[in-house]
Write a structure and sequence with these properties.
Helix content: under 10%
Strand order of the largest sheet: 1-4-9-11
Bound molecules: calcium ion
Shape: elongated
């Protein structure tokens, strides 16, 4: 078994063996190699060796090449000769691999031969993740014994399997808010790429029966496909009671500033209510956001949370005024009581203690003292300088198969935490697990599969 590995220029131009150059040296019968990325940059006779060789000087230990091996869901990238010379002779299976850079493999009935589109192939192993439009995404075989984790620890498989050592995730963004004027907030699943319609799509699950078992809408929007540069939030821009879709574009913007674009819920997101370049420069994955009214003028504002690398040595917050297109600050750079944070945290806002001032929720997913998913709340009344709550919950520690939202699901005035399980769910559907704010998140009154298939 050889799976979820990366090989970068390993064994290239290795001349100590009979045959110079190799991707991989396979000496065992029945070896299964899957979901690996073999990457080479040097023109050489790259190949997979199946013969069994001893130490130099190269003497075959066994004249019989390995047989009954299988190679599936792998990426072979690099210049060189065809790699099937020994494979075809010894009954080894090649199926559903990607070959690019001059390689070929005529025995692979499901060969992918277009550029796998690495994020940055000169940036080391992490650069061998796939871009959102890679043809290797969702093109893999679902193999029964996946190993459970990809090269960087993402749980496998996240929806349809991908080819190569990295599973692509983040296609869906989740938001929580009222869409349809009825009392209870709804769950918004925003599909950013590989949508089928060629548009960013909104799939909104009704919260009316606490079951999320039907859709209020499933539609392409006026916005083309997007990527991880864009985050999505639900709020009512124009006070007509119908939720609107806020898109925060963090980088690669025309204005070189973080931008906010608002799509109108009233026409099913077919037009824009607003386009704004904010006063804040471009941002990246060290930032998180929320959209909620801070200064009680009923206009949603943009909360910019800097998780780390700020000047104060803490998790920082700044809030931009929605009333003037986010061009001025309601709260300028402010350190908080929370030390720097990272990818184990998600953020949201809501009025935890019902004093009329929205508070900042931090959901800590892993690495927790309580060995559970934790809820921490910073007090909006003193500009987030102290905590209103630290608590463990009945949710065990969570990973990136979960997304979190904050809102009052049952209209009892207590802000709840909505845990969305995207994949590897018991029901086979995207699931909602709600931590009840009444009682400080110690119960899970709602745990349900939704009408939405598994997401990633
Ligand atoms: Ca609206
Ligand atoms: Ca406001
Ligand atoms: Ca409060
Ligand atoms: Ca509640």
């Amino acid at each position: 078994m050889f799976r979820n590995n990366i090989s970068c220029n390993d064994g290239s131009c290795n001349t100590q063996y009979v045959v110079p150059g190799k991707f991989f040296h396979c000496e065992r019968d029945n070896l299964e190699a899957y979901n690996n990325t073999f990457y080479n940059t040097i023109a050489c006779s790259y190949r997979i060796l199946f013969a069994r060789f001893g130490s130099p000087p190269a003497v075959p230990l066994n004249p019989h090449a390995a047989s009954s091996c299988s190679f599936r869901n792998n990426i072979f990238y690099g210049p060189g000769m065809a790699i099937d010379a020994e494979a075809t002779a010894t009954g080894n299976l090649f199926d559903n691999n990607s070959y690019f850079g001059g390689l070929s493999h005529p025995t692979d009935a499901h060969a992918k031969t277009s550029d796998p589109m690495f994020v940055d192939r000169n940036a080391g192993p992490a650069g061998l993740k796939l871009q959102p439009n890679s043809s290797c995404i969702d093109a893999g075989l679902l193999l029964a014994n996946s190993g459970g984790r990809d090269f960087c620890g993402t749980q496998l498989y996240a929806g349809p399997a991908d080819i190569g050592a990295f599973e692509n995730v983040g296609q869906f963004a989740f938001a929580y808010g009222n869409f349809d004027r009825l009392g209870k907030p709804d769950l918004w699943a925003i599909k950013r790429w590989k949508t089928g319609s060629g548009k960013t799509e909104a799939h909104i699950l009704s919260g009316a029966q606490d079951s999320y078992s039907s859709f209020l809408t499933e539609t392409g929007t006026a916005e083309g496909e997007t990527n991880a540069d864009c985050e999505f939030y639900a709020a009512d821009f124009d006070h007509n009671g119908i939720g609107d879709l806020y898109m925060v574009k963090k980088r690669n913007t025309g204005s070189r500033m973080t931008e906010v674009h608002v799509l109108d819920g009233a026409d099913n997101f077919q037009s824009y209510l607003s386009h704004s370049a904010t006063a804040f420069g471009e941002t990246d994955s060290t930032f998180a956001f929320a959209v909620a009214d801070y200064n009680s003028d009923s206009v949603p504002d943009l909360w910019v949370i800097r998780k780390r690398n700020g000047g104060t040595g803490s998790t920082e917050i700044q809030i931009l005024n929605g009333a003037n297109g986010f061009s001025t600050y309601l709260l300028t750079t402010r350190g908080t009581a929370e030390p720097p944070t990272d990818g184990r945290y998600e953020f949201g806002c809501g009025d935890y203690n019902r004093d009329g001032k929205p508070d900042l929720f931090l959901i800590k997913k892993s690495g927790c003292d309580t060995h559970s998913t934790e809820v921490h709340v910073l007090d909006g009344a003193n500009q987030f300088q102290s905590y209103l709550l630290h608590t463990g919950t009945p949710m065990s520690e969570t990973d990136n198969s979960f997304s979190f939202c904050v809102g009052d699901y049952n209209s009892d005035g207590f802000v709840d935490v909505i845990c969305v399980r995207k994949w590897n769910t018991g029901t086979g559907m995207t699931e909602v697990h709600i931590l009840n704010g009444n009682g400080n998140y110690q119960t899970l009154p709602v745990e349900t599969g939704t009408a939405l298939v598994q997401t990633n």
